Automatic annotation (TrEMBL):
<dbReference type="InterPro" id="IPR034660">
    <property type="entry name" value="DinB/YfiT-like"/>
</dbReference>
<dbReference type="Pfam" id="PF08020">
    <property type="entry name" value="DUF1706"/>
</dbReference>
<dbReference type="InterPro" id="IPR012550">
    <property type="entry name" value="DUF1706"/>
</dbReference>
<protein>
    <submittedName>
        <fullName>ClbS/DfsB family four-helix bundle protein</fullName>
    </submittedName>
</protein>
């Protein structure tokens, strides 16, 4: 059996991490999944984490679309520089406070599928070769895709594990 390409590993690992993320959320009874934890951190519930991922998928899709159209996309977002990432992430958090968890789940599952389809549409060479596309500058598509899928999902898994643990402990203490 031939070794898997970086593209195949990216797709498999991203899907595996995405599935693991939802397994954590589903480990909490559905009626408790919207509970917010007491924390000084930005993300206080599953919805916050999922909408953060969703918005970063949306930014990636914009970068990709603009880049493939021959433009140099503004990254990370119009009005923000990479050094402003905390401010941008807080803006994202504020933007989605009225979204329900069910809406967040639907949005994220759709955006995950779109990003996986983008990855699937490229050859391993196109994904791995630095400077293959002008808009990726000195980098490659892999770095953009991995940052917004498998690596971001690892961050989200850790956040959701902490949220799930908190919810389960509060419920256990009530008994």
């Amino acid at each position: 059996m031939p070794a898997k390409s970086e593209k195949e590993i990216l797709l498999l690992t991203s899907d595996r991490n995405f599935t693991a993320l939802f397994e954590i959320i589903e480990s909490v009874p559905s009626r408790k999944r919207s509970i917010s934890i007491e924390t000084e951190e930005r993300d206080k519930n599953f919805r916050d984490v999922l909408m953060h991922l969703y918005e970063w998928h949306a930014m990636l899709e914009r970068w990709y679309r603009e880049g493939m159209d021959g433009d140099i996309p503004y990254m990370p977002a119009p009005g923000y520089k990479w050094r402003d990432i905390k401010l941008l992430n807080m803006h994202i958090w504020e933007k989605y406070q009225d979204v329900t968890l069910n809406q967040a789940i639907k949005k994220l599952k759709l955006s995950h599928k779109r990003v996986m389809d983008l990855i699937e549409s490229h050859s391993n060479e196109e994904i791995m070769t630095k400077k293959y596309y002008k808009w990726t500058k000195t980098s490659n598509l892999y770095s953009y895709f991995a940052a917004n899928t498998l690596n971001h999902y690892i961050w989200a898994i850790k956040k959701c594990e902490a949220i799930a643990k908190y919810i389960k402990e509060v419920e256990r203490d009530k008994k």
